[in-house]
Design brief:
This protein is α/β, with parallel strands linked by helices and 915 residues long. It is 36% helix and 18% strand.
Length: 915
């Protein structure tokens, strides 16, 4: 048996390691379902690889491995870890990705050495609180587990989300579920109403608290409603039999849920039938076949109006089913820190819409939560949608929003406003203030004036609006509500049939599909893109020049080119024209793919490229090829791929097709960072001087650059973006950019040094500039002296070499887009530091095997051995973070922010507003 063979192989390796006193053991890919007990004999073991097996649990014998520093359990089937894992007190690295873990034992909080190199939990079905903590980094996970270890409480709560068209009886149904007094006429719901519902599980008797979210049904609300679809939840799709399921858009509402929350549990509820109480007529089998019986669980017919006996027909059965479904949700019964839950209940029962940040900290302190843990509590609560707090936003950081649904109602007033709709989404702040102070809708109360700027800022944070510039000479108080832009395409400026001289055109298609690989619509995608990408709008300096409509937009990214994004049926077509279109095309494709797959968890975005001539049907551009499949075919040494259009029969060259796909590696992955730098360094210095001249003349930047110069700048951008992407996870815990040089002037006279002092200078990840350049009055801020060992320096060499080479590339034109060009003296000083750092790497590694790799003509080992080699430097970077924190926990004043893809960056305080 294969399993027995793997078990025998594992036992042989364990015995061999015992005899040899080995400190590392590799048991990967053996299809182990159990870890042999003999592992307990390897008390000297420091490194244990167990990934890519079929382990479901770890034996208690693991406690004997007290010297273990690295434990890799990724790609198994673990559902839990033993509490005894806390005995591994030397553990610095714990890889648990791609398992079935929902919880971690609280005892892991005692493994404080994990802060150094990290905990990996990707692709586990973590409970929402733990997942939110993991998003903040290893330290946050340990703090969360420590809080649970002190005292925990079991939660039996979830959302109850009622959606459907307007006036189908959602509010009446929620009132009936709550046993509220019947109201003969209820006002239309604007936005969202939230009210509690208590149900009892029929078998266990467990009381379950549900927050009933009643969503207004008007079509204009659909895009914003999706913001509040989240697990754990039971969904009720409500429709009126009198109007039929087609008029009730039952399938459309289920589709909307399925795209946003693919694991959602849905009950379809027909409400009051009107005269004669018409019975519901709906094809149950078709709906369950289409969406799955694990999604659409059941169908009900309820009359929310009580009969003479004061009971509502069908309500008891529905309520019982809601309780049963809620009890079955994976998140039900999860445990959370007791102190945190007490604070959450205090805040949720507060009748105010928001509280000052300091007041929330005071409430936390009353419950025994210190400031550091309180900040983590707020970050996790923000991620889960309980409260809203942007700790680095100058308007929002001093307040905590307690009632997110207030925002939904405030948004609804704007979306329903005729004046704003007539202006295609343009609205002045004064008009917003009037709408929010005196809503023109019966039964709706206004909001205090001090909330108005908060609402506007939150709309910007939720990708619903952005500030526009109407007159470059004057400050603007006008915003664009992207959902209300015009529905017809305007004239496209400077966009003929062919690119302008010197430019090339590349086209890609983002094909959006659901879990059945059927074409799908991401409801509201272009509204989000208009806001998210407005920094590239043609009208970023003058709104009148903006080009966008409900199904498309045009963008301009200076030397990276001009782009047209538009819907073609359900596909998003991206066309970029530039001297080097690959960079902007890659960025836009990544952005669209991220938005689709992050916001709509039930959708996927397949990147496609159009066919080229020769075409068997004389219509090049109509056939679409999936880039991932082209790459797979190329790896199998296939040179051509058949056209997917029936009747064409043409086989197309894969390399030619991929010319339209920005899949090429950055220059450093093709010819080596040093060789690329040698090729372009002189031209970069010329570009630097040319930009300085243009700035002095007050002319538009980049317009005077040659085609070759634009290509170089785009490739430098590509290089920098690749470096940053490699170490996204490490940015949770500290900055990624720094330059260095040995402190000792005689460093090069000590070729056999054991340890040395390095001067480390931190850089801003937004402006790409070192902190001394951004702090002219305090040039020592962000500059440190650290003692490092030769062993650490040697291990860090691949990353240091790429880092130094990349910073040398961006230095001449650092922050060119922000016009913060370095003065000549500062520039020269940083250039010398980077050169000194590069030479110190070469000097230290001279003659070593690693040096041979790092100095080969192709330089390929830097990246291609591959990305994993650089990603492995993450542990080195985390060690550096720990050393820097000991010197300065504030990292020289750098502020951790999140970009629109929720990736962390460390930026100088003057750039916080950019995020």
């Amino acid at each position: 048996m294969l399993g027995n063979k793997g078990d025998r192989e594992a036992r042989q390796r364990i015995e061999q390691a015992r005899r040899q006193g080995a400190i590392a053991l590799d048991l990967r890919y053996l299809e182990l379902t159990e870890l042999p007990e003999a592992i307990a004999s390897l008390t000297q073991l420091r490194v244990l690889y167990l990934s890519n097996n079929q382990l479901r649990e770890l034996p208690e014998a693991i406690v004997s491995l007290t010297q273990l520093q690295l434990l890799n359990l990724s790609d198994n089937q673990l559902t839990e870890l033993p509490e005894a894992i806390a005995s591994l007190t030397q553990l610095q690295t714990l890889y648990l990705s791609n398992n079935q873990l929902r919880e971690l034992p609280e005892s892991i909080a005692s493994l404080t050495n994990l802060e150094w190199r990290g905990l990996r939990l990707h692709n586990n079905p973590l409970n929402p609180d733990l997942a939110a903590a993991y998003e903040q980094g290893t330290k946050a996970v340990l703090q969360y587990l420590q809080a649970k270890a002190e005292a925990k409480i079991t939660l039996n709560e979830a959302k109850l989300i009622l959606i459907g068209e307007g006036e189908v009886g959602k509010s009446c149904l929620l009132g009936a579920l709550r046993e509220d007094e019947w109201l003969e006429s209820r006002p239309t719901t604007h936005g969202i109403e939230i009210k509690p519902v208590i149900v009892t599980h029929p078998d266990s008797g467990t009381e379950i608290s549900l927050n009933g979210w009643d969503f207004g049904g008007q079509p204009v609300y659909r895009s914003t409603h999706q913001l509040f679809f989240s697990a754990p939840a039971v969904y009720l799709v409500v429709w009126k039999p009198r109007e039929g399921p087609q008029q009730g858009f039952v399938k459309e509402w289920i589709t909307l849920i399925k795209h946003r929350a693919p694991d959602a549990k849905v009950l379809v509820v027909a409400t009051h039938g009107g005269p004669g109480q018409r019975q519901p007529d709906i094809d149950r089998q078709e709906i369950q076949d289409r969406f799955g019986s694990d999604t659409v669980l059941d169908f009900f017919h309820v009359d929310s109006k009580p009969e003479l006996q004061n009971s509502c027909t069908g309500l008891a059965e529905l309520k019982q089913k809601i309780a049963s479904v809620a009890a079955s949700l994976p998140e039900m019964g999860r445990s959370v820190p007791a102190k945190w839950q007490r604070v959450r209940e205090i805040l949720q029962t507060n009748d105010k819409a928001y509280l000052p940040y300091d007041d929330v900290l005071a409430i936390c302190a009353q419950q025994g939560i210190d400031k550091e843990q309180a900040e983590l509590f707020l970050r996790i609560s923000h991620t889960l949608g309980h409260f809203i707090h942007y700790h680095y936003d100058p308007i929002l950081r001093d307040i905590v929003i307690l009632k997110p649904d207030w925002l939904a109602k405030a948004i609804s007033f704007v979306l329903d406003d005729e004046t704003t709709r007539r202006r295609n989404g343009l609205v002045d702040f004064e008009h917003l203030g009037e709408l929010w102070s005196n809503p023109p809708f019966p039964g709706e109360d206004g909001y205090p004036k001090e909330l108005h700027p908060i609402f506007l800022k939150l709309m910007e944070r939720f990708d619903l609006s952005y500030r526009v510039v109407l007159d470059p000479a004057k400050p603007s108080n006008t915003s664009l509500i992207a959902q209300l832009v015009r529905d017809t395409r305007p004239e496209l400026p400077n966009w003929g049939q062919q690119p302008e001289a010197g430019d090339r055109q590349q086209v890609q298609i983002c094909r959006i599909v659901d879990d059945r690989r059927q074409l799908a619509v991401a409801e509201g995608l272009f509204y989000q893109l208009i806001v998210r990408l407005h920094k590239y709008s043609l009208g970023r300096c003058n709104y009148e020049k903006s080009i966008h409509w409900q199904r498309g937009l045009m963008l301009d990214n200076d030397y990276n080119g001009r782009a047209l994004l538009e819907y073609v049926d359900t596909d998003v077509k991206i066309t970029v024209r530039a001297a080097y279109p690959e960079r902007f095309l890659s960025y836009l494709t990544e952005e669209i793919k991220w938005v689709v797959e992050y916001f709509w968890e039930g959708l996927r975005c397949n990147v496609m490229v159009p066919c080229i001539a020769p075409c068997g049907m004389n219509a090049p551009g109509n056939g679409l090829f999936e880039v991932e499949k082209l790459i797979e075919s190329k790896k199998k040494n296939r040179h051509e791929y058949p056209c997917p259009i029936s009747g064409c029969g043409e086989w197309q060259n894969i390399d030619c097709l991929l010319n339209n796909a920005p899949t090429a590696q950055p220059p450093s992955q093709q010819i080596g960072i040093q060789q690329f730098r040698n090729i372009v360094k002189d031209e970069l210095k010329i570009i630097r001087k040319d930009l300085a001249i243009v700035d002095r003349r007050g002319e538009e930047r980049f317009q005077s650059l040659s085609q070759d110069q634009r290509i170089i700048l785009s490739k430098v951008d590509e290089e920098f973006a690749s470096l940053m992407q490699m170490l996204t996870d490490e940015a949770k815990d500290g900055p990624r950019l720094f330059s260095f040089k040995p402190v000792d002037p005689s460093f090069f006279d000590r070729p056999k040094w054991i340890s040395t002092k390095l001067q480390i200078t931190l850089w801003c990840e937004h402006s790409r500039q070192p902190l001394p350049a951004l702090n002219p009055n305090d040039k020592k801020k962000g500059v440190y002296e650290l003692e490092v060992s030769r062993e650490w320096f040697t291990k860090a060499a691949p990353y240091l070499k790429i880092l130094t080479g990349t910073l040398s590339l961006v230095l001449p034109v650092a922050a060119s887009a922000t016009k913060l060009m370095l003065d000549e003296a500062t520039y020269k000083g940083i250039e010398e530091e980077l050169d000194f750092g590069q030479k110190s790497i070469e000097s230290t590694l001279k003659g070593s095997d690693l040096a041979t790799n790092l100095s080969t003509e192709s330089d390929a080992p830097d990246w291609q051995q591959g990305e994993a080699a650089i990603r492995a430097q993450g542990s080195i970077l985390r060690e550096l973070h720990a050393l820097l924190k000991a010197k300065d926990p504030g990292f020289g004043g750098l502020v951790r922010v999140q970009n629109r893809r929720r990736e962390f960056l460390w930026v100088h305080e003057q750039f916080i507003d950019e995020y």
